[in-house]
Amino acid sequence: MSQERPTFYRQELNKTIWEVPERYQNLSPVGSGAYGSVCAAFDTKTGLRVAVKKLSRPFQSIIHAKRTYRELRLLKHMKHENYLVTHLMGADLNNIVKCQKLTDDHVQFLIYQILRGLKYIHSADIIHRDLKPSNLAVNEDCELKILDFGLARHTDDEMTGYVATRWYRAPEIMLNWMHYNQTVDIWSVGCIMAELLTGRTLFPGTDHIDQLKLILRLVGTPGAELLKKISSESLSTCWRRCLYWTQIRELQQPKPLHMPTLLSTTILMMNQWPILMISPLKAGTSL
């Protein structure tokens, strides 16, 4: 026996028409981004406050259509119960870092949850590819959820270079490696963890080249074997121009940390080139 199809209703919010199932009532805007908007709503079926996502112009172009399909397909693959309806969270990490100082215990718990989520995502052979503070939602109980799978891909897909926000982007993505793997997400977690610990962005590059220079100053020069993986001749030339040897140095802290284990875990994530980078499980056990 087939299930009864839900009845939808239309509502205009911030000059955008929302068409949602009747079970979701009391819609109110929460935020918006390049690819969509989010509203808070009350789920009359479960009695919970939820967040409903509306994709902006999902079929505007082939690229938009592929991104829309990819997000839906991957969320379904991971058996996400509501697809574009999730529990309503209070804020994202980007807002939290700007507004308050996190304790070491908070940082440890947040990073543990990110790594725990990544372990599940990676076990399904999926790479998120766009981890950053604004894609990590947190509620008042410090519970964290990973958001926005619009750029996620299966590991057996051929990869593209221009993904993720530059400051959290792994070098192999910027260098157009066509078959990078889940370690690009670990790099992003290392960047996020350093930001939570220090209160500032680890690699705030002003452009593509400046980003690579900042990475080299901290991580050092990769070996010849890894340099061969650069597919673009122009990128390879550009990369070699900004190569110079520097010792891996400790992160400069505005004040001493009370949990040196957290700092050592960050360095463990960041001081190796991608082919040697650690897994979420190993990073989690280092916390």
From TrEMBL:
<feature type="domain" description="Protein kinase">
    <location>
        <begin position="24"/>
        <end position="262"/>
    </location>
</feature>
<keyword id="KW-0808">Transferase</keyword>
<protein>
    <recommendedName>
        <fullName>mitogen-activated protein kinase</fullName>
        <ecNumber>2.7.11.24</ecNumber>
    </recommendedName>
</protein>
<dbReference type="InterPro" id="IPR000719">
    <property type="entry name" value="Prot_kinase_dom"/>
</dbReference>
<keyword id="KW-0067">ATP-binding</keyword>
<keyword id="KW-0597">Phosphoprotein</keyword>
<dbReference type="Pfam" id="PF00069">
    <property type="entry name" value="Pkinase"/>
</dbReference>
<feature type="binding site">
    <location>
        <position position="54"/>
    </location>
    <ligand>
        <name>ATP</name>
    </ligand>
</feature>
<dbReference type="GO" id="GO:0005524">
    <property type="term" value="F:ATP binding"/>
</dbReference>
<keyword id="KW-0418">Kinase</keyword>
<comment type="similarity">
    <text>Belongs to the protein kinase superfamily. CMGC Ser/Thr protein kinase family. MAP kinase subfamily.</text>
</comment>
<keyword id="KW-0723">Serine/threonine-protein kinase</keyword>
<dbReference type="InterPro" id="IPR011009">
    <property type="entry name" value="Kinase-like_dom_sf"/>
</dbReference>
<dbReference type="GO" id="GO:0005737">
    <property type="term" value="C:cytoplasm"/>
</dbReference>
<keyword id="KW-0547">Nucleotide-binding</keyword>
<dbReference type="GO" id="GO:0033554">
    <property type="term" value="P:cellular response to stress"/>
</dbReference>
<dbReference type="InterPro" id="IPR017441">
    <property type="entry name" value="Protein_kinase_ATP_BS"/>
</dbReference>
<dbReference type="GO" id="GO:0004707">
    <property type="term" value="F:MAP kinase activity"/>
</dbReference>
<dbReference type="InterPro" id="IPR050117">
    <property type="entry name" value="MAPK"/>
</dbReference>
<keyword id="KW-0346">Stress response</keyword>
